[in-house]
Amino acid sequence: AQKITQTQPGMFVQEKEAVTLDCTYDTSDQSYGLFWYKQPSSGEMIFLIYQGSYDEQNATEGRYSLNFQKARKSANLVISASQLGDSAMYFCAMGSWDTDKLIFGTGTRLQVFP
Amino acid sequence: DADVTQTPRNRITKTGKRIMLECSQTKGHDRMYWYRQDPGLGLRLIYYSFDVKDINKGEISDGYSVSRQAQAKFSLSLESAIPNQTALYFCATSQGMIGEQYFGPGTRLTVT
Q: Residue B98: pLDDT band by 50, 70, 90 thresholds?
């Protein structure tokens, strides 16, 4: 069975600092993708970044990067130079070629303070 | 205009009532999904559809039904609403395998 685990219910970071949000996953599939979504207090789900299981380089999108360690089955999100607008819930998700569905972790609430 | 729309955005209903949540998309995607979000539980898949003739149960389909009226429309029904169906409901679309999913704005449903 597939599973996504986010062990940090809440994180605090000071503005302009970097922060890492943890995500571990469990799957027996060989081909899968890992996603991060942001949910601000307004409620919408915003796609941030994607990493394919066969991608050799870590994905980056602006201030977001995904620290992919395949052997450890981890896909941590790194946000550099945090901004007050980064305060939100962050969800890690995984999809596989076999199931073609996404499963989500329980989320991490990030709060950025001045 | 938004690519994925959901109506209504907010709804309060009573136990035992039938309610339908609607989702429309202009992205031209074949795949559509319904999720519910509860505090501390993340998003859980209710139903999904890969095309008009293909409907599949997700993780928590009991108490729900769906209809894929067209490629662009996917409706979720609660035949007899109960209070523990109070949640935030999201529709999403995607194209292709393990594609990025595009979410609607959500429907906040309260069952009293």
A: low
